[in-house]
Amino acid sequence: MAENRASVYAEGVPCWVDAQLPDVEAGKRFYGQLFGWTFEDWFGSFVRALKDGEPVAALVRKMDGRLPTVWTVYFATPDARALVRRIQEAGGQVVQSPVPAGELGVTALVTDAEGAVFALWQPQEHPGFGKRHEPGTFAWAELYTRDTEAANDFYGDLFQEALFGRDAEPDFGRAPVSDVFAAEMPPHFLVHFAVEDMAGVLEDVIRLGGRVQVPPFGTSYGTVAVVQDNQGASFALLQR
């Protein structure tokens, strides 16, 4: 079992990520070379990415070309339907109501009160990340929002234990959109993957057909660069 494996994630802790892509095979080539991931067929059209044999992410083909090409972060919950109700009461919206993913778990897609999209995961056979906080694996999710105080209230009420509990390790934070992006950029979550050599990985992103959106900058949780893969999905690199 991997050192960082967590079989149970507290409600409100990021526990999984996936990328909706037009071409999954191209995604496998890009991320396989960038992060050293291997892949296996999984549930439906999902392909599971592995790092050193442990699950770290999934890729899935977009069923509708009008949908965005994006990375999505999943927050753990023991009861997706109850959490969806609380999200609606707090001013969020439901994009996809809770549905089973076979025997793996139950998933839902929602937005916060400002429209930032995120997913929920109620685990059954699939608890979430088998490895995180290591190079080539999930390290952080940052919410870029227009109203940080409103975000504090929304997520603080939803995920009190994850944010403020005794053993809290939320793995996510928030910042104003305008700190990094153009002011007109809509609120959104940005998935971060850990790296050891920022300059080298940025060179690999470009070599593999991606591009650098925002060059490296300092944050309270490390040095970050925002990039796009070879199909336009944005994500961040994080060097602690």
UniProtKB/TrEMBL annotation:
Annotated ranges, domain VOC: 13-123, 137-240
InterPro entries, sorted:
Anthracycline_SecMetBiosynth, Glyas_Bleomycin-R_OHBP_Dase, Glyoxalase_6, VOC_core
- The protein here is known as VOC family protein
Q: Which domain of life is it from?
A: Bacteria
CDD domains, per the entry: SgaA_N_like
SUPFAM superfamilies in alphabetical order = Glyoxalase/Bleomycin resistance protein/Dihydroxybiphenyl dioxygenase (SSF54593)
> Which PROSITE patterns would you find in this protein's record?
VOC
Recorded hits in PANTHER family, A to Z, give:
CONSERVED PROTEIN, GLYOXALASE-RELATED
